[in-house]
């Protein structure tokens, strides 16, 4: 095993993606790719990665477009989930050499990976290659629309989730959220870190730029997808981990998962939204169990 991660860059169209291979590939070593959310970088996974079986796995992380060391395209359309799936394909083609791989996503990392997972059966670039998916605090946009459009019996729960989601509306406004992040990112970062139990240095000086670029994830996808819902299904084994104290996503978004997944398991963890940072031990055990179940790595 190398002394430290191997830092590489992968081209996805005209975008350069910053990738870290924390351990080398090898025979019998499942490739596990972790994709971070908003407004993080790939280093948000460090505490979790340290608790994974690095002696037996090929573990990969990368900065999503707009964050960290990856390029930040100017066009809003460049942040559509279709382009994010292109980035995933570019990364796994570079590091997995055609082999199957396991996916772990948090927040917007999970949101975008849901699109890859439901495309696995039809996208020739992914067909038969996704061995499993672990979703942390990041619902499928398709499943979210399904829940919101069929509130019967859960109207109060849906209303509660809508109130928790008001920040999404704010993020889609022009000018205001950009100015807020550019001028107040240090204060906002400290406030969120304190409230969520994160280390004070969880976000570094790059938070302002990462947060501003990442606003395009919301603007390019949320309203477009909610207006035009898709009927999707996947046979990929899915583990959904819901943090019981998530301030942004409520349990209602874990309902009706069987409508889009033939093999899905739900686990609830007593944690907040950034559970991979605040509770890396329990999350690592869940991820390890799910990967091992679906890779023959026992």
List keywords for this structure.
298 residues, alpha/beta, 8-stranded mixed sheet, 16% strand
Q: What is the SS-derived class? A: alpha/beta
**Mean pLDDT, rounded to whole units?**
95
Task: Give the ordered list of helices and strands.
Answer: EEEHEHEHEHHHHHEEHH
User: Distance between the terminal alpha carbons, to the nearest Å?
Assistant: 20 Å
Largest sheet: 8 strands, mixed
- The poorly predicted ranges are none
Query: Which geometry do the CA atoms define?
Result: globular
**Count of individual beta strands:** 8
Helical proportion, percent range: 25-40%
| Main sheet: strand order | 1-2-4-3-5-6-7-8
Count every helix, treating DSSP H or I runs of 4 or more residues as helices: 10
What would you say this structure looks like, in words?
The protein is of the alpha/beta class and 298 residues long. 39% of the residues lie in helices and 16% in strands. Strands 1-2-4-3-5-6-7-8 form an 8-stranded mixed beta sheet, with helices on both faces. Helix 2 crosses helix 3. The protein is globular, with a radius of gyration of 18 Å. The model has no long low-confidence stretch (mean pLDDT 95).
